[in-house]
């Protein structure tokens, strides 16, 4: 999913100061929270869907409105980690400024390593979504779609899908696990101008599935920032430009609004094209959770290959992308 690829946001207008006067890290978020008496399925983003909810056009995915029971969602929204915590403990750690409308995340391992700084309901939510129990729940819903997209996957792994060993991405104790799970709790930072956090792409070739779960704030009234589901145009081969695609080779099928308590779950493949529509300017950050399962050492070649488009335009765009990555000017 949109996972931190940034736009070319050069200059002061594209950056926000995160000096010591701007934020107080964590604030009172480190105070212990009392959990409601809830059963585990009520925490699951898959708890209220069935196989009838699986969509197949243009690729296997689900859109879940009112994903969690209202009381569970409201408690998670109320205790959502502060922007300052995500910026200072997550992927932006150590930096005093951050690009406008860019993705910033806290990984599951970071959250679970700081039990004093995150509410109990969030620790429980994260723990469940990186567990084998969640993966088995996911398989019960979308296992047939995985087999249809990757008919040789069980053969490549040497075991049936339900017997895949799972672990936590980034935790060295799980290095031998076949599928590594993660649950990113993050934001897209406020936008100073109209821009997209990421345009049409597929997720990394080692990623089996991804889920986005939205926590829109009540005061967030800015239009845009919605998830667009795309497909390759008729007779267009799945060819990429570095990690992205030539958008003229694709067409939008439908749009999922960025809406509170809404989740989108997809099977990743070379056909699982999606994008984030432009938004901004906006003073509010966009809150979202990203759950994923990735094959690292078990399938080092990945699930699919991002074959490259070789036109002069594509070659030039790839060179520009490499330059921006190398100079930090994305």
What does this structure look like?
The protein has seven helices and 14 strands. It has 330 residues and is α+β, with helices and mostly antiparallel strands. Strands 2, 4, 5, 6, 7, 12 and 14 form a seven-stranded mixed beta sheet that branches. The chain is globular, with a radius of gyration of 19 Å. The protein starts with 14 loop residues before the first strand and ends with a helix. The relative contact order is 0.19. The model is unreliable at 2-37 (pLDDT under 50).
Separation of the first and last Cα atoms: 17 Å
Order of helices and strands: EEHHEEHHHHEEEEEEEEEEH
Number of strands: 14
User: Could you give me the name of the CATH homologous superfamily?
Assistant: q2cbj1_9rhob like domain
What's the story with the biggest beta sheet?
A: 7 strands, mixed
Helix content, binned percent: 10-25%
Mean pLDDT: 86
Beta-strand percent range: 15-25%
> Spans with pLDDT under 50 lasting ≥5 residues?
2-37
- What's the alpha carbon Rg, rounded to whole Å? 19 Å
């Amino acid at each position: 999913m949109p996972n931190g690829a940034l736009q070319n946001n050069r200059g002061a207008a594209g950056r926000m100061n995160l000096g010591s006067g701007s934020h107080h890290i964590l604030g009172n978020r480190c105070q212990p929270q009392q959990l409601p008496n809830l059963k585990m399925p009520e925490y699951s983003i898959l708890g209220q869907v069935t196989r009838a909810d699986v969509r197949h056009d243009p690729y296997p995915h689900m859109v879940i409105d009112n994903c969690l029971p209202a009381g569970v969602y409201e408690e998670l929204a109320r205790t959502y980690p502060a922007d300052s915590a995500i910026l200072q403990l997550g992927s932006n750690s150590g930096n005093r400024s951050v690009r406008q409308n860019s993705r910033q995340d806290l990984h599951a391992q970071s959250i679970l390593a700081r039990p004093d700084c995150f509410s109990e309901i969030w620790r429980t939510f994260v723990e469940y979504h990186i567990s084998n129990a969640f993966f088995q729940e996911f398989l019960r819903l979308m296992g047939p779609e995985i087999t249809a997209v990757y008919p040789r996957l069980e053969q490549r792994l040497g075991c049936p899908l339900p017997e895949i060993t799972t672990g936590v991405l980034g935790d060295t104790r799980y290095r031998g696990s076949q599928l590594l799970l993660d649950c990113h709790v993050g934001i897209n930072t406020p936008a100073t101008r109209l821009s997209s956090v990421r345009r049409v792409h597929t997720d990394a070739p080692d990623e089996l599935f991804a889920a986005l779960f939205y926590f829109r704030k009540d005061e967030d009234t800015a239009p845009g920032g919605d998830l667009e589901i795309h497909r390759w145009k008729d007779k267009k081969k799945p060819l990429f430009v570095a990690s992205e695609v030539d958008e003229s080779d694709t067409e939008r099928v439908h749009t999922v609004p960025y809406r509170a308590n809404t989740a989108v779950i997809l099977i990743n493949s070379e056909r699982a094209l999606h994008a984030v529509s432009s938004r901004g300017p906006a003073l509010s950050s966009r809150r979202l959770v990203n759950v994923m399962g990735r094959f690292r050492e078990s399938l080092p070649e990945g699930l699919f290959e991002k074959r490259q488009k070789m036109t002069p335009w594509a070659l030039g765009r790839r060179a520009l992308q490499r330059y921006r990555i190398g100079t930090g000017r994305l």
